[in-house]
Amino acid sequence: MGPAQFPTSLGTSDAEQIRLLGQDLTQDLMGKVGFGELAFWLVALRRPTPGETRVFEAVLVALADHGFTPTAIAARLTYLSAPDSLQGALAAGLLGGGSRFLGVTEDCALFLQAALAGCAGELPTDDTGWDALALQTVQQTRAAGRFVPGLGHPVHKVLDPRTPVLIDIARSEGLRGPYLQLFEAIGRVHEQVLGRRLPLNGAGVCGAALADLGLPVEMLRGFALLARAAGLLGQIAEERRRPIGMDAYLAVDRNAVYVDPVDPQTTDGNANPT
Questions:
Q1: Which of 135, 154, 187, 194 has its CA 20 to 30 A from that of 79?
Q2: Which tens digit of pLDDT belongs to each residue from 4-16?
Q3: At what angle do helices 50-63 and 202-212 cross, to 10 degrees?
Q4: What number of helices (H) and strands (E) belong to the chain?
């Protein structure tokens, strides 16, 4: 009986050669394949077309950094606490990628996937049809007491500047597929149900664009984290050059005020501090 085998379609190496995705790493990939293109290839197990690479890398750029978000603050404060652990600071920021920040990329795509699955293969063929499907989707979501992922933004109250640019790039490359078309329609009709107009979140549009590239919807949060890793590395580098972590920590610590946990004036009906 021979030694156990562990099949992989990714990377292997021996004393003379490193192979990745069936290619010779040094001869076929290094200096010839961009990092974004490679990241797509590693997950999809197919080399993206130039148009797909352009959309994919536009998404990575859109998600890389968004200022002093909780993920950036977590990375900076972790670096303040443990400057000897760059990996810990980077990991701390990535661990904050969830349903409110970054995770909406995947959540939005999963939401759209469920709505499209209900079409039983008969997708709309024009804006009128997409609007009808979007209206039905938003109505059902509202009736279930849930929110539409990717609708609204804590900072960009009227327009997320990333949204029209990403849609235009996908359209110009012929990659504006059903996910983007449905999400755009949601942007047009949701006010009829919600009674107010909200912007399409750039992170949500990123999820729709990635799904239209045929990437596994359940993997999309990983791409958001991949993009944010670059932004967090930049945040940590800036923390080294021009630190604000100590000021942030002291601003909170020196202004902490004790409240009586049983004082009705400082708690709500669920005994949560107000």
A1: 154
A2: 999 999 999 999 9
A3: 160
A4: 11, 3
The total of structural domains in the chain comes to 1
User: Which pTM does this prediction carry?
Assistant: 0.90
| CA gap 33, 36 in Å, rounded | 8
pLDDT tens-digit profile of 161-197?
999 999 999 999 999 999 999 999 999 999 999 999 9
Does 142 reside within a domain? yes
Tokens 């039905």 sit on residue:
136
Nearest 5 degrees, angle CA 133-CA 99-CA 249? 150
Is residue 12 in some structural domain? no
Q: Which two tokens stand for residue 46?
A: 């197919």
Cα–Cα distances in Å, from 145 out to 81, 135, 169, 175? Answer: 41, 15, 34, 33
CA dihedral of residues 35, 41, 46, 51 (deg, nearest 10):
-50
121 occurs within a structural domain: yes
CATH number at residue 132: 1.10.230.10
Residue positions counted in the chain: 274
Q: How many beta carbons lie within 10 A of that of residue 205, not counting itself? A: 29
- The answer as to whether 154 is a domain residue is yes
